[in-house]
Specification:
By secondary structure, the chain is an alpha+beta fold. It has 12 helices and 10 strands. The protein has a 10-stranded antiparallel beta sheet with strand order 1-5-4-3-2-7-8-9-10-6, with helices on both faces. Keywords: Membrane, Transmembrane, Transmembrane helix.
């Protein structure tokens, strides 16, 4: 997949492609989240057949490859599956995932219902505009919020916000005793489906299925602004809604993404060092010296030791030798010694190893 390409898959196609590439934990999570198929064997088989047919129709199916997928799709699935860190946010009916690849590029996964659209993002160009576009806000908006005030509510009020009826929200908006900041917040909250949008930073391993949430933030998009949920004092039964300009808020989220993606997962640091050390030691062992006198001397003394032992056994039977037996023995030793010297020289060179 080229960095300018865009690939769109249905949830069914995505699950099938990830399964063919071996990322089963990703598939289980996706199937569970979308409730796509039951555990019955006939349903699973039908699911696989339909996904395969759909991938064929889009030109993503190549029966001659190991995964049966086209190279572009296989590369994309491996990039997503091997991503160790991702950023996730939501709005009504839509989701956005940003999967870290390296320090230059990330993969953006925009989810609209059952449609997943993948594109590459240039890490150096930032994420501010992508986030603002996702929430349909102007990334350059820096509205003057000097007249807006942070809103403090009790934990009880905060917990009841999700259950407010439209009539109750209307009454709050028309209540003259309510300040303007709260009125604007409650309208934005209603418009957002009476939910807070999460920003989640997760460290994930799609191979072994382990994941860890690093941090979470919540907000509500308003009219050219964002209401940030400050819950650090929730232990004191206080919750704050802070008005922030679009530009400032998404710049802060962008900075956090940069910081999160540039970190190396702590559990991979020792492994990386060990692997590098093992690889270096292995290379040293596998690559012998081009000419070693030590190897020649080693062969020389071992060979002479064998010749000495053989000569000893021959001398045991000297009583049965013919008259010129000593001459024959000396000739045998001389020829053997010449051969030993010659072979010792050749043994100084490394052996040829077949790889």
């Amino acid at each position: 997949m080229n960095y300018t390409d865009k690939i769109t898959l249905t949830s069914k196609e995505l699950a099938s492609a990830m399964a063919l590439c071996g990322y089963n934990s990703f598939v289980r999570h996706l199937i569970s989240a979308k409730n796509m198929v039951s555990k019955k064997k006939k349903d699973v088989n039908l699911f696989s057949e339909e996904a395969e047919q759909s991938l064929r129709e889009k030109g993503f199916w190549h029966a001659r490859t190991e995964t049966n997928l086209s190279k572009d799709l296989e590369d994309l699935m491996n990039a997503v599956g091997q991503s160790k860190r991702n950023f996730h946010c939501k709005r009504l009916g839509h989701e956005l995932f940003i999967h870290q690849i390296d320090l230059s590029f990330s993969i953006c996964q925009f989810v609209d219902g059952e449609q997943h659209t993948f594109t590459y993002l240039d890490h150096r160009k930032g994420y501010k505009e992508e986030l603002a576009r996702f929430y349909k806000l102007d990334p350059g908006s820096s509205q003057n919020l000097s007249k807006m005030q942070p809103i403090q509510v009790s934990e009880e009020v905060y917990n009841s916000l999700h259950e407010l009826k439209d009539e109750e929200i209307e009454q709050m908006f028309n209540n003259e005793n309510e300040n303007q900041s709260f009125k604007e917040f409650i309208v934005a909250f209603k418009k957002n489906g009476k939910v807070f949008n999460p920003f989640t930073f997760t460290e994930t391993d799609y191979v072994d299925g382990k994941s860890r949430t690093d941090q979470v933030a919540f907000s509500v998009p308003g009219d050219d602004m964002v209401w940030h949920l400050e819950y650090e004092k929730v232990s004191e039964h206080k919750v704050y809604f802070i008005p922030v300009s679009v530009s400032d808020y998404f710049k802060k989220i962008e900075d956090t993404i940069y910081e999160f993606f540039e970190q190396v997962p702590t559990d991979t640091k020792p492994k990386a060092k060990i692997k590098k050390s093992q690889r270096t030691n292995s290379q040293k062992k596998d690559k012998p010296e081009p000419f070693s006198i030590k190897r020649g001397l080693n062969f020389f003394w071992k060979s002479n030791l064998v010749l000495l032992i053989m000569s000893f056994f021959i001398l045991i039977n000297k009583s049965s030798w013919v008259e010129d037996g000593y001459g024959t023995l000396l000739l045998y030793i001389l020829i053997s010694e010449v051969m030993i010297v010659l072979l010792s020289f050749f043994s100084c060179f490394p052996k040829k190893v077949n790889r």
